[in-house]
Design a protein that fits this description.
Length: 553
Amino acid sequence: MPPWKPDAAYGTFVGDRRLRDREIQIIQQWVGDGALRGESADLPTSPLFTVGWQLGQPDVIVSMSEPYAMAADGADVFRNFILPVPLSSRRYVQAIELRPGNSAVVHHARILIDESRELRRRDEDDPQPGFGGMETPGARFPDGHFLGWAAGRMPRRESLAWPLEPGSDLVVQMHLRPTGRAEVVQASIGLYFADAPPGHAPVMLQMGSHTIDIAPGVSDYVVTDSYVLPVEADVLRISPHAHYLARDMSVFARLPDGSTTALLHIAEWDLNWHDDYEYSRPVTLPRGTELVMRYTFDNSSGNRRNPNQPPRRVVSGPKATDEMAELLVQLLPKRRADLATLRADVEQKMLLLDVAGEKKKIADGPGNYDARNALGVLYAHIGRVDEARASFEAALAVQPGNAVAHYNLGILAVSGRKIDEGMAHFARALASKPDYVEAHTNLGALLHAQGRTNDAVAHYREALAIRPNHVAALNNLGRAMIDQRRPHDAIRYFLESLSVRPDAAEILDWLAQAYAAAGDHDAAARTARQALERAIEEQKEPLAREIRLRLKR
């Protein structure tokens, strides 16, 4: 225990804990002989299990500030908890260990990173610890990595560490199940840092389907997906995921010469024992290799794990009684020069996967505002601007005057250099939602660009009155102060911004300009050096972005 699900003939993985054929034969023979007790003197020494943190004392421990109370009965709960990380500079994380606080309640968890700290507001708006649902806009896995916990999954140190920026929050997304009595959950996370940054960076490929629709009684519903590698790459890890109806999972690589390489096979999927699997030796695949996944689902009454008796229609969704077909594959390009190509191609693949899912939601419910808005965001990300605009306008037809749809149309307009149109949409967003911080900030930036600095400052101050630590408003207000020849005020705003985003290259660059405008040339030179060093570390130039062109889901 816990059971090991992958088929032995499909890949060799780190931490393989399956019983070997000879061990199974010994147990069968023992049972056949009557399960007799042997001599006490022959008993082996009892194993010693690590108590507490499995990887030793973490470098940093963060915990939920208060416990979450779980009701004794009712439906499964999906809850997100925000854990701020106290860092003063960028660190590289080699391992992460989650202690769920109550493993009887926590079925599994994902750990995401929120560098914007925007999700804190959703936590604050909810009277209970954390906030509900599966939507965590802006939060993400670290590039090329997936972080999670499930019963039986052991933490391990990775060969490729990932960067964690100061001011970031960890978002623990938990699937909680009632036990029949009142319970509390209070998780902690241990972070283990590497001594140096990694020499290479992986890419995370997501495959699967968001269009699942299984009729009751169907026992052989199949989901397939594929992806062609644009570069030569190593497969380092693989992580399948589905819910109760999944039965068989098969993943393989079809090489350009027509041969195939088996990557994973699980003949009897069990949601209670899912894991991610690291290959004992990376699987090298040439450019042009097609990765293929094939999952089979059983929605019949003969499926003993089917939560619905009698069976009912099941579609894609986050709830345990919905269904998922997801496969995460960690890829490492053989050549560092190919990283950008692979990353861009994978991102396009995953966006198109999401597009199909939102279109399915709209087909099932034409009045679904959220799906229409989300589809517009996805179209914008893949460069299909006309379709994005049509989706946002369709969202407005469902909910006239919706602030987010107007905001997104404003972003599209500004991106297309239609400044007046963009300003009109931001103004409409504010008419519907006067406390819309991003709309205030972006409208202010457009006014600022037109030389209407006083009007811009009014919007920046309004944004900060609503959200005092909003970085974009602080930065834009600082730049406005420089334009108004009030450099000491600018310095104050940039320092406030740095307290939220320590060591951010672009803010340091602006702060250096403010010091220079104030006549403090020593501080200007010192801060400019810091900005340059930080920019080199980030591998980008410290360029100002006066307006945050971020679409809203």
